[in-house]
Amino acid sequence: MAGYNFKRIESKWQKKWEKSRIYEAEFPSKKKKWYSLFEFPYPSGDGLHVGHLRPYIGLDIISRKRRMEGYNVLFPIGWDAFGLPTENYAIKTGIHPEKVTKKNTDNFRRQIKSVGPSLDWSREINTTDPDYYKWTQWIFLKFFEHGLAYKANMPINWCPKDKIGLANEESVGGKCERCGTETIKKDKEQWMLKITAYAEKLLAGLKDVDYLETIKTQQVNGIGKSEGALIPFEIKNPWPGRQISLAGQANIKNGGVEVFTTRPDTLFGVTYVVLAPEHELISKLKTQISNLWEVEKYIAESKKKPEQERVVEGGEKTGVELKGVRAVNPANGKDVPVYVADYVLANYGTGVVMAVPAHDERDWEFARKFKLPVKMVICPNYPEPTCPPLTAAYTGGGRLVDSGKFNGMESEDAKQAITHFVAGKKEVKYKLRDWVFSRQRYWGEPIPLIFCENCASNPKLKDPWPGRQKSKLSLGEEMNPGWIPVADLPVKLPKVKDFRPGENGESPLASLEKWVKTKCPKCGKPARRETDVMPNWAGSSWYFLRYVDPKNKKEFANIKKLEYWMGAALPSRSSKSEGGVDWYNGGMEHVTLHLLYSRFWNQFLYDIGLVPHREPYRKRTAHGMILGEGGIKMSKSKGNVVNPDDMVNIYGADSLRLYEMFMGPFDQAIAWDSKNMEGVSRFLGRVWSFAVEKEITKDSVGGRLEPLINRTIKKVSEDIETMAFNTAVSSLMIFMNECRNEERIPQKVWARFLLLLAPFAPHIAEELWSMLKHKKSIHLEPWPTYDPELIHEETFELIVQVNGKVRAKVSVKRGISEVEAKELAMKAPGAAEYVARGIVKIVFVPNKLINFVVK
RNA sequence: GCUCGGGUGGCGGAAUGGUAUACGCGCAACACUUAAAAUGUUGUGAGGUUCAUCCUCAUGAGGGUUCGACUCCCUCCCCGAGCACCA
């Protein structure tokens, strides 16, 4: 019989599987469903490297096991193909992104197929396909209708040299990626999605899902909820005769500011107040600021600074006092100086901070630099009479001191009491900002809105188009006067000649006057199209929904199919809303944004009754990155990219799969080492030669190998569930090593080994399975089970310890009693002499060890 | 700075509080071969000791809990990832 010819075997079975379509998901089906998902790739021009494949192989193993366990498995793939690299390539070469995308996806598809994953290719999707992005646009309009999309003035990164707007990822460290010029912020009208409206729900939803703890933490941090209070500070009028006119907040009588704080208990410790440079109060107080020129100079400088520099680590705090302006502490009526400093952020809280240097690190630092007083009001070790002098800010809790009638109160209680005392109010703030949904770019989904001057000035004038509620504006139209949804989706991306963004920071689409000029779908008067496109994140925010019904022309997905695959039901049918993708794996780098965005879309669609499940993913795990040899990131420029094509050529797909799983823990970053491919390759070679050289008997009992195969089944089954693929592979190797001594093996044992091997090395397992004269694919056979009674040998090595140190080993029967074990162990050479010293205590662990504690 | 991981042979890494170093790479010796490759067999933490044996020391450092600690607790050092002036 010939040697292990992986090339022949692999191409043979890949063709057969494709033809027999054994990996395609069924619908309808009476079986239990299973939906496993990996993050669909961005098809870059560089092709796949071995790192991309790790999560695919891992989930393929899980999916294959589920299929063998009798589930109806949905394991789909698609392409997240809109994006900047393709667009930039188009700008450079003039080749249309569509062509580039086609070429790249073809290459990716070929590469992925070459490792034989059990993907359902009949459900392949592509975010750049108009049949797909029609629904991305459609969902966007749903957001619009429900008042969750709005236009706002938001800064974009602008390169003054290239005269183009840059995406955040192109403005590296505040510099233009192409020419290195420092970018500046330029205000532009942009579409926003109101994700902040879902902050609380996104937080609450985490309770029902099974994400890795670190992933949950990142979600929580990304949302950044903090509970605190708004406290009013009045601005003292230095010239009592003169009237100061200030647009006051609700609960400030004479004008002033509200501060947001999470520590109202420290209010008596406030020694100054700080405004963000952008704060509007500064211009309103102009006439009172005696050092106005200095203040304005500071503001101008800090505006020039790119955000990165403003937030340098350990950077010296800067600021300027507003001379002539004082703020009044509502707790004690005392007035404190007011500063402007850029360590206060304009877009968080109210843009004003009450500074408590004694109990806040940033304020401490600032106060030290500007020699401002530090007043301690929280004492950590009360009732000790004296509090230790502060050498740093104390940010913990304790009891209040030097705080008037609140002295002695617990800081937690004081939060409420003091807020109430100064007529402040409780307030919750989030770090999460609304999502800037516009890109002034080409290669993205056009935003399907039209601006109509006529409708803007006469909002209720005309009837809407057929099929919509008559005489009532949607929330989106109310909020964004004149913006009218396109009636016929998709809005196809028009062809352009020049893919460069426009001179004034507009999308290349803005240059297509013919396309831009259109008729209002509502009143029929001349109108203009929105020329911005959606960000990369749009298509990936809902792709997991499309997989259940990828070819549907009428809906983004059929509700029956959604209910089946997500394992949940619409509220009208059942109260079961927990469901979603059963297992979603992806990179750690997407754990904040992509996860947040897609959870937001799904929750919104759930709220408006379009999907049955509240949360998109039941379980989320993350794989570790594969680094180049030497432990550095694989990149073209470093020349350390390992191409899977080469590995498949030299060692075969099964070896590559096995090595990627064997190299180390799945969730940890690990350096590639092609040398180590030898090990798994030899293992498969041994499996092959064993199968062809040794006798496979028809015995109906497992014989000597029965305990080992049972242990192996247990280990492999459990390890797959925890993604401990490396130890699963090693236990397969251990089994094979043990077999080497055998001249014949019962088919009963061998078959179970092949079944365990099948998810890892599907081609060789299938070939060897067919050599056992099986007609059906091994991948449709039931997963083997083990008998807990059979996993142990009859005898074991009893470890004999003296004072916790191993002194002897004795081979004894399983289930030996303590008394018997003691007898044998005491006589064991190596232990006897110690035991003679006199036993103080004996510790006996059944079927494992006996420990003599001696003098 | 904060949060979460991690630190074990020459290397990748294993170990429900119970034989540390599984499995693999590499290396060495041997077998097969005219020879090499491939393959197979055996050995392989360090130091000492003996013909076999045995002893001591080793899981980033230092303490602690325990009959027994890579594992649990405290202090500190280093590496990686994420967040980063969010009041």
TrEMBL record:
<dbReference type="GO" id="GO:0005524">
    <property type="term" value="F:ATP binding"/>
</dbReference>
<dbReference type="InterPro" id="IPR009008">
    <property type="entry name" value="Val/Leu/Ile-tRNA-synth_edit"/>
</dbReference>
<feature type="domain" description="Aminoacyl-tRNA synthetase class Ia">
    <location>
        <begin position="599"/>
        <end position="672"/>
    </location>
</feature>
<dbReference type="InterPro" id="IPR002300">
    <property type="entry name" value="aa-tRNA-synth_Ia"/>
</dbReference>
<dbReference type="InterPro" id="IPR002302">
    <property type="entry name" value="Leu-tRNA-ligase"/>
</dbReference>
<keyword id="KW-0648">Protein biosynthesis</keyword>
<dbReference type="Pfam" id="PF08264">
    <property type="entry name" value="Anticodon_1"/>
</dbReference>
<dbReference type="InterPro" id="IPR013155">
    <property type="entry name" value="M/V/L/I-tRNA-synth_anticd-bd"/>
</dbReference>
<dbReference type="InterPro" id="IPR014729">
    <property type="entry name" value="Rossmann-like_a/b/a_fold"/>
</dbReference>
<protein>
    <recommendedName>
        <fullName>Leucine--tRNA ligase</fullName>
        <ecNumber>6.1.1.4</ecNumber>
    </recommendedName>
</protein>
<keyword id="KW-0067">ATP-binding</keyword>
<feature type="domain" description="Aminoacyl-tRNA synthetase class Ia">
    <location>
        <begin position="12"/>
        <end position="217"/>
    </location>
</feature>
<feature type="domain" description="Methionyl/Valyl/Leucyl/Isoleucyl-tRNA synthetase anticodon-binding">
    <location>
        <begin position="709"/>
        <end position="817"/>
    </location>
</feature>
<dbReference type="GO" id="GO:0004823">
    <property type="term" value="F:leucine-tRNA ligase activity"/>
</dbReference>
<dbReference type="InterPro" id="IPR025709">
    <property type="entry name" value="Leu_tRNA-synth_edit"/>
</dbReference>
<keyword id="KW-0436">Ligase</keyword>
<dbReference type="Pfam" id="PF13603">
    <property type="entry name" value="tRNA-synt_1_2"/>
</dbReference>
<dbReference type="GO" id="GO:0005829">
    <property type="term" value="C:cytosol"/>
</dbReference>
<dbReference type="GO" id="GO:0002161">
    <property type="term" value="F:aminoacyl-tRNA deacylase activity"/>
</dbReference>
<keyword id="KW-0030">Aminoacyl-tRNA synthetase</keyword>
<keyword id="KW-0547">Nucleotide-binding</keyword>
<comment type="similarity">
    <text>Belongs to the class-I aminoacyl-tRNA synthetase family.</text>
</comment>
<dbReference type="Pfam" id="PF00133">
    <property type="entry name" value="tRNA-synt_1"/>
</dbReference>
<feature type="binding site">
    <location>
        <position position="636"/>
    </location>
    <ligand>
        <name>ATP</name>
    </ligand>
</feature>
<feature type="short sequence motif" description="'KMSKS' region">
    <location>
        <begin position="633"/>
        <end position="637"/>
    </location>
</feature>
<feature type="domain" description="Leucyl-tRNA synthetase editing">
    <location>
        <begin position="221"/>
        <end position="421"/>
    </location>
</feature>
<keyword id="KW-0963">Cytoplasm</keyword>
<dbReference type="InterPro" id="IPR001412">
    <property type="entry name" value="aa-tRNA-synth_I_CS"/>
</dbReference>
<dbReference type="GO" id="GO:0006429">
    <property type="term" value="P:leucyl-tRNA aminoacylation"/>
</dbReference>
<dbReference type="InterPro" id="IPR009080">
    <property type="entry name" value="tRNAsynth_Ia_anticodon-bd"/>
</dbReference>
